[in-house]
Amino acid sequence: MDFPESDPERLTVLYVQQWLSEQGFLSALKALEKDSGIVYDETKLNEGAKLMQLVWRDMEAVLAADVDDAAAERLAEEERLLRGGCEDYVSEIATCLEGVHPSSVTCVRIWPGRDVLLTGSGGGHVRLMDFEADVKWECKVGTGGVLCLDLVEISNDIGRLAYLLAVGSMDGSVSILQPERGEILASNRAHSKYVVRVLWAKSDAEGGSNGHLVLVTASHDQSVGVFSWESTEASGTELRSSAEPTAQIGGEVHTLVEIKKVPYMTPVQDILLMPDGHTLVVAVKAAHCLRLLDIHKIKDLGDERLINMNEAGDNHISFTARHLALSPDGKYLLVSTDTARLLILRTCDWSVLRSLFATSEQFHNPVATWHRDSFYVYVATTTAEVWAFHVGSGKVVSKLAAHKINVRDMNYDASRNLLATCSFDKSVRIFRSTGH
């Protein structure tokens, strides 16, 4: 089937223009032509009433649906989402931090329960600063820009430190920092290209990881890596014989030991851990399927389940999943794509529940996160704004004028209802709800 327009957004405008023309709404048609920059050409559509055909088809599908138990449950879920939400989404700026780094701010994390931020820069530095931009420490990691951060609280039986910070860089390296003081505990040239995501997880003691922490990494070198975090008492023999990059801090040797690399035929775009702590969701470039891996089954990491993101269930590739975000209740996965479309998948059956539409451009870095009640999502747009969507209705309920240049990363603190964003404009913004 050939479409009169290959761009879905231009095709949407064409359908609306046809409907306005057919209804005699000529003033509205002229206004749409002016605002969209697209002049209506009625010869592009061989059939009339294309928009109404879609509307009636949708209505008939709803009315004719086989209301079995699964369909009834899904309908009830959609109704719950439509009616849900107490409108406490963030809507105003609480703090503006300018010149956070000399170069672009590439990632940001709010330290849970504290008025401090961890930030990474295009210059390869990580900083800890408070909400007044007072820098507590700065640390240079790797030889390239910082692309991702992950902070984890650790138990006393794993190590003496309360927190660990993982840092992924453009040069393919991964560094582990003591975030209270900014000390590098260990580093590893984990990949040969960009490390776009680092995630802490807990091992179940298979594969020689002894129940310790594991670090999962995603890279544009077409692989996912799984590394064990090892802390042992220092000895001269151990330091001399170790083949892994190590650091000795306070009488202990800290090491990142590679357990497994999972190869793909295309760059890995993002990874995400499910609430069970061991199911890993993997998004790769130019693929219509997400991958599910079990990181506890170290030897069988190549065995994966494929999740088709196409609603029709076909093999057509029309987008790439670029960013993944799990709802706080674990029921939904938000998939940001390299188009204006965002998908919301139900994790119970991995079906597409809803599509949201923001803005898109060729070099946009998609990033999004959920509100604490799972009824709203925050999405970075190409207009340097952050849009808050109501999931049930798909409507934009708030537009936050965040930055001068596109948002690079965001992080949400559910306990305090705070949203932090960072940008290529070297700044960080912290948003709160109006009622805060």
Strand content: 35-45%
Given helix and strand content, the structural type is mainly beta
Q: What low-confidence regions span 5 or more consecutive residues with pLDDT below 50?
A: 206-210, 237-244
- The average pLDDT is 88
Q: Spatial order of the strands in the main sheet? A: 10-11-12-14-13
Distance between the termini: 52 Å
**E-strand count:** 29
Quick one: overall form? globular
Helix fraction by DSSP (H/I, runs of at least 4)? 10-25%
What's the tally of helices? 5
Largest sheet: 5 strands, antiparallel
Radius of gyration: 24 Å
Main location: nucleus
Pfam families: WD40
Subcellular location: Nucleus
Keywords: Nucleus, Repeat, WD repeat
Short précis:
The protein has 436 residues and is mainly beta. The chain has helices at 8-23, 26-36, 50-64, 69-83, 236-241; strands at residues 92-97, 105-110, 116-121, 125-130, 135-140, 146-153, 163-169, 174-178, 183-188, 195-202, 213-219, 223-233, 246-249, 252-263, 268-273, 279-284, 289-294, 305-308, 321-326, 332-337, 341-346, 352-357, 368-370, 376-380, 385-390, 396-401, 407-413, 418-423, 428-432.
Report what the structure shows.
One of its GO terms (cellular component) is nucleolus. Keywords: Nucleus, Repeat, WD repeat. It is found in: Nucleus. One of its GO terms (biological process) is ribosomal large subunit assembly. With 436 residues, this protein is mainly beta. Among the domains are: 8-64; 141-266, no CATH class. The chain is built from five helices and 29 strands. It has helices spanning 8-23, 26-36, 50-64, 69-83, 236-241; strands at 92-97, 105-110, 116-121, 125-130, 135-140, 146-153, 163-169, 174-178, 183-188, 195-202, 213-219, 223-233, 246-249, 252-263, 268-273, 279-284, 289-294, 305-308, 321-326, 332-337, 341-346, 352-357, 368-370, 376-380, 385-390, 396-401, 407-413, 418-423, 428-432. A five-stranded antiparallel β-sheet has the order 10-11-12-14-13, with no helix packed on it. Strands 1-29-28-27 form a four-stranded antiparallel β-sheet, with no helix packed on it. A hairpin with a 5-residue loop joins strand 19 (321-326) and strand 20 (332-337). Helix 1 runs antiparallel to helix 2.
